[in-house]
UniProtKB/TrEMBL annotation:
<dbReference type="InterPro" id="IPR000182">
    <property type="entry name" value="GNAT_dom"/>
</dbReference>
<dbReference type="GO" id="GO:0016747">
    <property type="term" value="F:acyltransferase activity, transferring groups other than amino-acyl groups"/>
</dbReference>
<feature type="domain" description="N-acetyltransferase">
    <location>
        <begin position="3"/>
        <end position="141"/>
    </location>
</feature>
<dbReference type="InterPro" id="IPR016181">
    <property type="entry name" value="Acyl_CoA_acyltransferase"/>
</dbReference>
<keyword id="KW-0808">Transferase</keyword>
<keyword id="KW-0012">Acyltransferase</keyword>
<protein>
    <recommendedName>
        <fullName>N-acetyltransferase domain-containing protein</fullName>
    </recommendedName>
</protein>
<dbReference type="InterPro" id="IPR050832">
    <property type="entry name" value="Bact_Acetyltransf"/>
</dbReference>
<dbReference type="Pfam" id="PF00583">
    <property type="entry name" value="Acetyltransf_1"/>
</dbReference>
């Protein structure tokens, strides 16, 4: 089995659409919309490739605030197809995103996941992330 990770390109939009629908459900995001987002945002998107097929993706962003002296990074999405989990793909994607976030001068990185997602929490802590006691509240506008 051949495994590697790299930054996504517009050529990956169709496969990203398929994986995102598996991850988030609902109506598929069109490849055209994904390409447009790639052109117009500073989002970092990494793909995990297994035997020449994209089987995972992860996204990150850098943000600044007057509240912090340094740029902050956030890994906002992480998905690995069920059939290839526990092969180290998430860790490879995290490592590449951290490298790219550091190149953007981010000094801290955070990841948000559900408290019931034990496999993700294990992966993140294995990669040096510390579990915090923050509470997330959300409201639909």
């Amino acid at each position: 089995m051949s495994i590697h990770v790299r930054l996504a390109t517009e050529k990956d939009a169709e496969q990203l659409s398929r994986l995102n629908q598996l991850f988030n459900g609902g109506e598929a995001v069109s490849p055209e919309k994904i390409k447009e987002s790639m052109k117009n945002s500073n989002e970092l998107i990494v793909v995990a490739i297994v035997d020449e097929k994209i089987m995972g993706f992860s996204c990150a962003q850098v943000f600044s605030s007057f509240c912090y002296d340094e740029l902050q990074g956030e890994i906002t999405e992480m998905y690995v197809h069920e059939g290839v989990r526990r092969q180290g793909l998430a860790s490879l994607m995290i490592n590449l995103l951290e490298e790219k976030l550091a190149e953007c001068n981010a000094k801290h990185v955070k990841i948000l996941t559900g408290k019931q997602n034990k496999a993700a929490i294990k992966t993140y802590t294995k990669n040096g992330y510390q579990l915090e006691e923050d509470v997330l509240l959300e409201k639909k506008l």
